[in-house]
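Record type: monomer structure entry
Structure origin: computed from sequence
Chain ID: A
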Amino acid sequence: MPLLTENHKIERTGTTAEFFAKYPHLQENARAFRSKALVNVEHKCLLYVQQREFAATTPADNSVTVIGSDDATTCHLVVVRHSGSGATCLAHCDGSNTWAEVPQLVKAVTSLSSQAKEGRLELHLMGGFDDESKTSQSLSLSLLAAFHKQKEEIHLVTCCITELNDIVTDGIHRPVVYGVGVNVKTGEVFPASLPTRGPAEELRSARTFTGGQMVDIYDSGKQQVKVGPCRWSPNRDIAFWLAADDKTILKYLSTSPQAEPPHFVQHIKTTIQFLLDHPSPDSLFPGGRPQLFRRTEQGSWDRVPQQ
């Protein structure tokens, strides 16, 4: 089925500039989105999604009100929602395997919407900017094409991506919106400032750093975050990066060195130290089972004891 906007089939284009010229109402929607006030999300209602992760749930979830992700430069944040069931999925996509990832996101929502008698699938795309290497544009076009190939009819509602999410300060291009939240009760999608990247922030970052593919990190039936089990090989050579200066790390470990948030370098070093401290991840997953976390009455995610 085609990707639609305002109930009209979206035609394939070769550049994002051609795309937005053909659908000017999406430009208006993007300007409206990026002008929204930044929402400071409370940790006790947040489910955080890291790079190459997605999470899906429904309005009936008592543990999650907002799914959110941030630190997106060339990466894109993708929200798929069923307007009838309210089932909502958010993903942080970096272009590593877009064609395999998009069907997972659609399935995550449709599987939670099987009882819905009416409604439609709605798509919100945010992220990227006018970066010099055109990494953002490539990902934007790949995501649009991948959603176009799905068998379900999908309606593109928000498209604040690449040049429509770009701002120039001191001659440097940067994203306007780095973080996004979606309220799973109301369906509202908004620019967000997120207070936490947990649970198991370092472990999840290590999984992505070592090449892990897109994974679902939430069991909405049990209302539990699930991490792993993960696999990586010991690599002492990465210790080099702990002594490297900021400029070197940004140059070699970022797709957008001049646009990264201030904590990027420290985040990379913390992740590398975690990998050095855990050269084999086996001990992190007793019996080969994932780490599970559930929401406490105080709003934190606590580890579920292994039986």
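Annotation 1: The first helix runs from residue 16 to 22.
Annotation 2: Helices lie at 16-22, 24-34, 98-110, 135-148, 201-209, 246-253, 264-277.
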